[in-house]
């Protein structure tokens, strides 16, 4: 079986397979470690494996490489990108900084390495509020997700959160609507949404959480409607088979679905596609990522 061959090659090469909660079920099943983007960054920093096969999208694999300049990091397909990350350029960050002297720059890890190099600190959806709260600055340039910026602003009214760009968004998460929340409630479910969802959906949901937060909260609920990538419900169902997790039909991130088992096998056989980050950019971005990881959890 292909999964057995993947495990055999990974063991032979001292490779660790890290996968995001949104990956295809069969890729989740073959991974050594599954998690949200914060958990994966921490695991990538802590690993002693010679090779990291990263099943996710490019900014996640880049983060793993930035934290491990001496290790080989492989993304099994070349075109698994994130449209949200591509909404922000380093020039936009520099211009915003110049027009807001004294403001801090917090970038969601869903950003390019070149943008992270311009940030004071990074965050994920799991720790965005804690990261911003930890800063001395009252004005915070926050990007590239405007809905996550809104979520942080709701929790920290004492700060001024400036979204950068003003309308950066995840094309999947902004598709969820109040009708999806109502359908979940009509079924008698608890409705949970990701903070990349629009503010009206956040306000109407029972819980707003990162994918890692969903894993931690799920044991307290019998039935959930889950407003995020549908593969999350596979992850939750494996962990808590007695509960019911309902996705919204068609809620697929096409980039997260690009890696198939065949690609993981190909990656282990050929070493393709190795992730590279230019050394000066990596050093500056590492500072922002490590500052995030060093915060108390
Ligand atoms: P998490 O922080 O929950 O892993 O979310 C990552 C992501 O890219 C959501 O679209």
From TrEMBL:
Its EC number is 2.5.1.72. Pathway: Cofactor biosynthesis; NAD(+) biosynthesis; quinolinate from iminoaspartate: step 1/1. Its cofactor is [4Fe-4S] cluster. Keywords: 4Fe-4S, Iron, Iron-sulfur, Metal-binding, Pyridine nucleotide biosynthesis, Transferase. The keyword Endoplasmic reticulum does not apply. One of its GO terms (biological process) is 'de novo' NAD+ biosynthetic process from L-aspartate. GO terms for molecular function: 4 iron, 4 sulfur cluster binding; metal ion binding; quinolinate synthetase A activity. PANTHER family: QUINOLINATE SYNTHASE, CHLOROPLASTIC, QUINOLINATE SYNTHETASE A. This is Quinolinate synthase.
